[in-house]
Design goal:
Low-confidence stretches: 1-5
Shape: elongated
Number of strands: 3
CATH topology of the largest domain: Multidrug-efflux Transporter Regulator, Chain: A, Domain 2
Strand content: 5-15%
Number of helices: 6
CATH class of the largest domain: Mainly Alpha
Strand order of the largest sheet: 1-3-2
Structural class: mainly alpha
Number of domains: 2
Length: about 140
């Protein structure tokens, strides 16, 4: 938790400052990605500059396709590791491998769909719709 003297943003000003909505900040806080804010004498949540930095990291990681669990792991690297680069690199390589697997699966799926469309265009088998036939007879 941050000290009152370090608090610079209310939830709404933090959201505006980093370009997210207030619900996003609530969600990040609920998921433990954003540390709980200090409450001032008016009971407003107050966030420090570190919170803005964390939200920017979260947004950047999301843009790169990382899951919330993966993002939490990256945030830990910023906090606990003296030399976080090897760990960050390993996590990123694992993500690349996952993406490669999905690309391969999507390629196979695309080929199967294209084959169904070709069968449909050739009116095979015997005038039946190959697409509907495939859907009806799927295992």
């Amino acid at each position: 938790m941050i000290e009152q003297s370090q608090a610079t943003f209310t939830r709404s000003t933090l959201a505006e400052h980093v370009g997210v909505n207030i619900e996003t900040l609530r969600f990040y806080e609920k998921k433990g990605l954003l540390l709980p804010a200090f409450r001032d004498s008016s009971n407003y949540r107050r966030y420090g500059k570190e919170a803005a930095k964390r939200v920017r990291i979260i947004r950047s990681a999301k843009e790169l396709g990382f899951s919330l669990a993966e993002i939490a792991s990256f945030l830990e690297l910023f906090e606990i590791e003296e030399n976080p680069c090897p760990s960050a690199r390993a996590q990123t390589i694992a993500k690349i491998d996952l993406i490669d697997g999905k690309i391969e699966e999507l390629g196979k799926l695309k080929n199967e769909l294209e084959a169904l469309v070709e069968s449909c265009e050739r009116k095979e088998p015997s005038g039946c719709c190959a697409i509907l036939d495939r859907l009806e007879n799927a295992d």
